[in-house]
Every structure is written in C-alpha cells, then in structure tokens.
C-alpha cells in the first residue's frame, strides 16, 4: 500500500520571497527578518539582566502585535499580490512592530534613561551624552523606515498599509510609555517588584539611573586593580 503523501507548508514567519537579481530586493528580504531578530534580542537581554524596563517594553511590543492581529482580521485588507504571503495586509505588522520599537526606544533613551554620576578614580562618569542618545534614537527611526520601505519593495504591502502600521505602532508606543511612567510614578512598579514571583526571578530596576555596561566594567576594573595591588606587594 502506497504511503499517503504529506502536505507541507512554509513557515511564513521566516519565509520571504524576493527578486534575486535586484540588490535592493535582497536587502529588503533581510530587513524583513528584523522583527524576529529583535524578539530574540528582547529575550536575551531580559534573561541576562532581569530588568523590569526590558520586560515592560516587551510587554507593550506583544500587546501592539496582538492589536495588529485583531485589526488584520477585522479590516481584511488585500496585499498587492495575493500569491505573496498568507493572511491580510492591513495594517502592516512589520511597520507597526518597528514603529513601536523605534518610538519607545527613542523616548526611553532620551527621556527616561538618566544614569547618575558614578565616582571613579579618574573623575566622574556621566553616562551616554544626550546627543549620543539622540543619535541612537534617530538610528532606530531610520531602521524602522527601512523595514517599512522593504515591505513595499517586496510587494507584500501597499504604501498606505505601511503608513497605517507606522501610525498605530507610534500610538501604541506613546500610550504605553505614558502608562509605564504612571506605574512608576504611583509606585506600582515598586509594589510589583516586591511580589514573590518577581523576587524568585531576580527582577530588578536599575536601568533608569545606572548604565549597566559601565557598572559591570567598573566592578571588573576595581577587582583588577586590587589584584594588581596584591601582586605588587
């Protein structure tokens, strides 16, 4: 008896069709994978730092994606080419994802992140300068715009679907930034971090006023100097 053939389907999360003869199309195909890469970065940063701010940003990102899921199945907008991609095209989930990420990150590095002065032997550490934070935020916006443009280049979305995605992602980021600021102001985050599950997960809240890269390096540098002092005796 012949085996029944198995019907296989593509994993659409990472399946991107592009024109191999066009360098712009090739670049666009790689840009289409950025949301998945950012989710991996979110997970890695959260696991490595256990920072509540990273968890909050990720929670807002996932809520924004859930909104996109609902809207797509409500609006049922067609894609430019029906043979490209499964599901509906309105609004663009890539554009919405990247807009949320860029706007929230930009607001966070410019408005919320205020590392305090840390005394060092050579002087005072002042953290990342404001203009450097601005450059970082601008780079995030440029990257988000590039991803949105790639969706049009690859014919996965009409331009207006990308614009709507950008608008929704921006609105989600602004709204969630205000909500998290309120939660911090009214002490909700402090209460949350005192809960047993948060204690068990070793959740912490240092990113607002501490540069974790510098703090970790300073501890290492202090230990290194002590070891050198012992060897020189």
Short description:
By secondary structure, this protein is mainly α. The chain contains 9 helices and 2 strands; from the N terminus they run ααααββααααα. Helix 1 packs across helix 5 and helix 2 packs antiparallel against helix 3.
What does this entry look like structurally?
The protein has 233 residues and is an all-alpha fold. The protein has one domain (23-232). The chain has helices at residues 23-31, 34-49, 52-75, 93-112, 130-153, 159-185, 188-193, 196-200, 212-232; strands spanning 118-120, 123-125. A two-stranded antiparallel sheet has the order 1-2. Strand 1 (118-120) and strand 2 form a beta hairpin. The radius of gyration is 22 Å and the shape is globular. The N and C termini lie far apart (84 Å). Required for efficient N-glycosylation. Necessary for maintaining optimal levels of dolichol-linked oligosaccharides. Hydrolyzes dolichyl pyrophosphate at a very high rate and dolichyl monophosphate at a much lower rate. Does not act on phosphatidate.
Features:
globular; two-stranded antiparallel ribbon; 233 residues; mainly alpha
